Amino acid sequence: MDILASYLQHLCGKENVKTNEPLSRWTTFRVGGPARYFATVDHKNTLLRLLSALNYLEAPYFILGLGANVLASDHGFDGVVIKLAFHHIEHNDTFLYADAGAKLGAVVNYARDHELTGLEWATGIPATIGGGVYMNCGAFDHCLADSIVMVDALIDGEIKTLTRNQLNFGYRHSLFMEQPAVILGAYFRLEHGQKDKITAQMQTIIEKRRRHPHEPSAGSVFKRPRDNFYVGKVIEDLGLTGYQVGDAQISPKHCNFIVNTGNATANDILKIIYHVQDLVEQKTGVLLETEIIFLGKIDENSIKNTSANN
Ligand SMILES: Cc1cc2nc3c(=O)[nH]c(=O)nc-3n(C[C@H](O)[C@H](O)[C@H](O)COP(=O)(O)OP(=O)(O)OC[C@H]3O[C@@H](n4cnc5c(N)ncnc54)[C@H](O)[C@@H]3O)c2cc1C
Fold this sequence. Notes:
Layout: H1 3-12, E1 17-22, E2 34-41, H2 44-57, E3 61-64, E4 70-72, E5 77-84, E6 89-92, E7 95-99, H3 104-113, E8 116-117, H4 129-135, E9 138-139, E10 142-143, E11 148-155, E12 158-163, E13 182-189, E14 191-192, H5 195-209, H6 231-237, E15 244-245, E16 248-250, E17 258-260, H7 266-284, E18 293-295, H8 300-307
Parallel strand pairs: 2-5, 3-5, 4-18
Antiparallel strand pairs: 1-2, 6-7, 7-13, 8-14, 9-10, 11-12, 11-13, 15-16, 16-17
Helix pairs in contact: 7-8
Bound molecules: flavin-adenine dinucleotide (FAD).
Residues 28, 62-70, 84, 100, 125-128, 130-132, 134-135, 137-139, 176, 182-183, 217-219, 293 line the site of flavin-adenine dinucleotide.
C-alpha cells in the first residue's frame, strides 16, 4: 500500500477509504472510471487535517457532493475524491443551519417539519448543501442564494464565515467557482409558515418534476445564455430530440437533459455536448456553456475529431 493510502486510512478510518473506486457509483450519470483514492470524511477537523496534508503533498483532490452535476472521465481521477459525511441540521426561530454534507432534500423536509417556508421550490433537486451552494442551484425562478445569509468555508487552511454579499452569487454561480475552498455549512433565513401549505407547495413541485426524465442524468447540461433563450427548445428545433451516441441520448422528454440509457461513457456524453454546441452556435451564434462540472482528464481533441462521424 502506498503512503497516501496509509495516511488516509490513519486519518479517516480504514472503512472510510477506498482505492480505485468506480466514480460511476457516485455520480447520477452513472458514468466515470476509478478514483485513485476515495475518502469519506465524517468530521470537520479531519477535513482540515486532510486538506493541509494534501496541499503539502501537492496531491489533487475533488470534493464530491451527490455527484448530481458531475461528469467524471472514463479514465477516472488520479487523486483523492472526498465525500463529506457531516450532515447536521438545526434551527433557531427562522434561522436555519445545515452542514455541507446534508442533503438538500433533508433540509427542505426539516424546514417543512419546523413550519419554515422558503425552500419548497428546491423539492426534488438532488444535491448536498455543499454542491447546492457551489452551483447556486435553482428552479422555478428561485435559487439557494435567495435565502442564504452566510456560508462557512475552509479557505487557505482557515475556517471563515462569509456573508452573502461576499459570495458572488449569480445564475449557477458562486465565489467557490473562482477560488479554491471547501464549503462546510450554510445559514439560511427562512420565514414562519404553515406545515399544510408548505406540504401542498412541495407536492405541486413534485408533480412538475415528474415530467422530467427518470433515466440517469445530471439535470440540465447547458446554462441558459440569457433570458428568453430556451436551450431545450433550441435543441429540439434543431431536430436533435433523441439524438444518440452509444448509450447517451438527448432525452426525448427534455432536450437540455442528456440521459444514460444503459452503459453510456463520458466520451459518448461529451460527443453529444460538442455536437450540440457546434450546431447551436452555427444556428444562433451562441456558444452554449455547460452547467455540468468535469472531473478527471478529458481528451477534447479526440472527441471533437470523431464527433462528426456520429
Ligand atoms: C434529475 C436531476 C435534476 C436536477 N435538477 C436541477 C434543478 O432543477 N436545478 C439545478 O440548479 N440543478 C439541478 N440539477 C443539478 C444538480 O442537482 C445541482 O447542480 C446540485 O447543486 C449538485 O449538487 P451535488 O451535491 O450533487 O454536487 P456535485 O454534483 O457533487 O458537485 C458539483 C460541484 O460542487 C462542488 N462541491 C460539492 N460540494 C462541495 C463542498 N462542500 N465544497 C466545495 N465544493 C463543493 C464539486 O466539487 C463540484 O464542482 C439536477 C440534477 C439531476 C440529476
